[in-house]
């Protein structure tokens, strides 16, 4: 997990995640699955990337476009890896990980995709992953990616000070 920052300290600094503060085999499995998603992105392998999602997964990108199903995710990522994000690398930091049941986890991350240095100076996106365990394997059933808007973040910080 070289490029994924996790652990009790990062989770507690960002609001705390009991699941990260007390790692379990399930926590380790979810984090390993996220690392496999990142590694497939770094390799530019659309099939391996899509293979980490369930057959019926939903996938929403920051522009509001969506894919439904593993094959759609794979097909969409062929040009992404071949053109727009060629040789890019993914970095993510887990902000929160919580289990809704023994086989369902929700993970909140902040991340960045680019060709520059890692870790990046700032993470520019926030993602939600819904991870499910099927047959002992953790996979992503739903993904939502939101681009941070620096202007709105600044305005919110000003409002919070009042």
In short:
The chain is α/β, with parallel strands linked by helices. The chain is built from six helices and seven strands, in the order βααααββαββββα.
Defining traits:
38% helix, 7-stranded mixed β-sheet, 162 residues, globular, 7 strands, Nuclear Transport Factor 2, Chain: A, alpha/beta
Q: What is the total number of structural domains?
A: 1
Structural class: alpha/beta
Strand portion, in percent?
Answer: 35-45%
Query: Tally the helices: what do you get?
Result: 6
Average per-residue pLDDT, rounded, comes to 83
Helix content estimate? 25-40%
Contiguous low-pLDDT stretches (5 residues minimum) are 6-19
Note the gap between the termini.
40 Å
Largest sheet: 7 strands, mixed
Q: For the record, what CATH class applies?
A: Alpha Beta
The shape is globular
Radius of gyration: 16 Å
How many strand elements? 7
Order of SSEs, N→C? EHHHHEEHEEEEH
CATH-defined fold name: Nuclear Transport Factor 2, Chain: A
CATH architectural designation: Roll
As laid out across the biggest beta sheet, the strand order is 1-4-5-6-7-2-3
Folded structure, characterized:
This protein is an alpha/beta fold and 162 residues long. It has helices at 8-13, 18-21, 25-43, 46-50, 70-84, 150-161, and strands spanning 4-5, 53-60, 66-68, 89-101, 104-114, 125-134, 137-147. It has a single domain, classed as Roll (Nuclear Transport Factor 2, Chain: A). The protein has a seven-stranded mixed sheet. The N and C termini lie far apart (40 Å).
